[in-house]
Specification:
Blueprint: H1 3-7, H2 14-24, H3 41-60, H4 67-81, H5 84-95, H6 99-116, H7 136-143
Helix pairs in contact: 2-3, 3-4, 4-5, 4-6
């Protein structure tokens, strides 16, 4: 998705929020490395799609690309994808957190993740490219997105 196209979206849309996120953090989704060590083409596609939606989920869940935000997102990815590497990254990243941030994980993020276990929406199957013009708040409502409390104000 060209960044210019995303920037042209309505200001309250997923596309505009995604463009703002990419620009604010100097991210370029096209710079992600190619999936390696996966021989099955279908599985390679799933892994590629997982990488593609990672930054979109940051936007969808209003999670900053800080260590705490990444830990929260990795917990969500573990629940959504079942990939062991996501759970390992969440635990490993959690070990690097400061005491205050570990408290946030214990009191807010883990209960939030537990509530995500009952989600009926497979976020990997959402065709985000068709949702770019939709208001972000409406998309969150349609997908049943619950924002995790106390992550954006906790720092990195």
């Amino acid at each position: 998705m060209p960044i210019e196209w995303l920037r042209a979206m309505p200001s309250d849309s997923l596309g505009a929020a995604y463009a703002g996120f990419l620009q604010a953090h100097s991210f370029d989704p096209d710079e992600r490395s190619v999936v390696q060590f996966v021989d099955d083409p279908d599985l390679a596609y799933v892994m590629t799609r997982y990488r593609q939606v990672h930054d979109l989920w940051h936007v969808l869940y209003a999670l900053p690309p800080s260590l705490l935000g990444e830990v929260a997102l990795k917990w969500l990815e573990a629940v959504q994808t079942g990939l062991p590497m996501c759970g390992l990254a969440a635990v490993g990243g959690g070990l690097r957190l400061k005491l205050k941030q570990r408290t946030i994980v214990r009191q807010h993020i883990l209960p939030w993740v537990a509530r995500q276990l009952t989600s009926r929406v497979d976020l990997m199957s959402v065709y985000y490219e068709r949702e770019m013009e939709k208001p972000l708040s409406l998309l969150r409502q349609e997908l049943g997105v619950e924002l995790v409390p106390n992550v954006s104000q906790a720092g990195s």
